[in-house]
Amino acid sequence: MSKILKFTQFSLRDLLVAAAPTVLLIVGVCLLAYWLVDPAPPRSVRLGTGQENSAYEEFGKKYAAALAKHGVKVTMVPSAGSSENLKNLRDGKVDIAFVQSGSTNEEAAEREGLSSLGSLFVEPLWLFVREQKGKPPITKLTDLRGKKINYGPKGAGSARLFRQILELNGVEKEEVERLSLANTPATVELLEGRIDGLVFTSAPEAPLIQMLLQTPGIKLIDFNQAEAYSRKLPFLTHVTLPQGIVDLGRNLPAEDYNLIAPTATLVGREDLHPALEDLFVQAAASIHSGAGWFQQQGQFPSAKYTEIPVDPEAAKFYKSGPPFLQRYMTFWLANFFDRMWVLVVALGALILPLSKVIPPLYVWRIRSRVYRWYGQLRAVEQKVEEAPEATRMQVYQEQLKRLNEIEELVNQVSIPLSFADGLYGLRSHIQFVRKRIMFLMDEAAA
């Protein structure tokens, strides 16, 4: 039993030694494939949001919570708005950001290495004005001449859009006194009566929008030419704020309002990891897919309504849903297998042919323990055959002694039982050579 265990142990060792070159080659190919494939996605990402109490900030918090479930930390980088977010993307200060449609064009986005992950929601242009007793009400944009209007801070998308709207109405920029306050302090100024109106683009979920729509003395301007604006500026959409949508009990607003609205898009840099793009698009689907004041169930997120080219990964999601593996595995595990497809292909190409090499190597290694002694045995025979007549007896005796040494060493050789026939064959051949030498010795002595 001890011999069998010994033989078995040696056979396993020989198998490992025979397989070592193949294993090393496969490991080398695996390391090379791992080095060549995309690196693992980072565990943190910078998201450009917006001003305090803005819809961008509110949605940024939702994205941070959604990605935190997958172990990815989202650092929100506040900004004045869409234009500043675009600048931060170009400068590499953020990896992904909310950008308003109309802020750039396709050629500029491609040149700057930016791509859209889809449009998320419409964000109407809200123009709120203060009603003043004894003064004619502001009902149209031409009534803004000579008024103090807050356009929003430098870098906000609303300022650029509102300037375009005023130009379409023939209102020169010097005819309106412009302020550039952030939305929250501008709202305070409006409520205190120190400015006549303020304008910003935002989804209705923004706390400031909700408050201003319900504040007595604050009026929302109706863009009754909204359809014409959408034809003049194709990135705009005509949307309607329905009567009673804010508060049905108090019938707020008391009538339908026509509004013009760009869409908010999620824009990423070209070096944003594809796996993070998948996470953001999936988060967008859960955050923005519901029905809202200006959208139907499932209308957003969408590959439409954006002038920036949609990233192929995002387009694939809108067409086919989430990646196959992520439907059944955790994000990190699915990402690992998705990245390692090169490794799987490499292993499949290597294992099958190399597996056919290992058995012959194993057999050769075992049999070589026996075969190498045949060289020694042949050397003994050659010296016996070439022995000079004068010293023939001495040579016979030396080679007989050498033969005994060989036999002693052969008896110490351990091989698996399945190869024992070769070992016993070698021993019989040693005995055959010994008998021949002894025969020659007897002949020489006679």
Automatic annotation (TrEMBL):
Transmembrane segments: 12-37, 340-364
UniProt cross-references to PANTHER family, sorted A to Z: SLL1037 PROTEIN
Name of the protein this chain belongs to: TAXI family TRAP transporter solute-binding subunit
Listed InterPro entries: TRAP_TAXI (IPR011852)
Lineage: Bacteria, Pseudomonadati, Pseudomonadota, Betaproteobacteria, Burkholderiales
UniProt keyword list: Membrane, Transmembrane, Transmembrane helix
Lineage: superkingdom: Bacteria
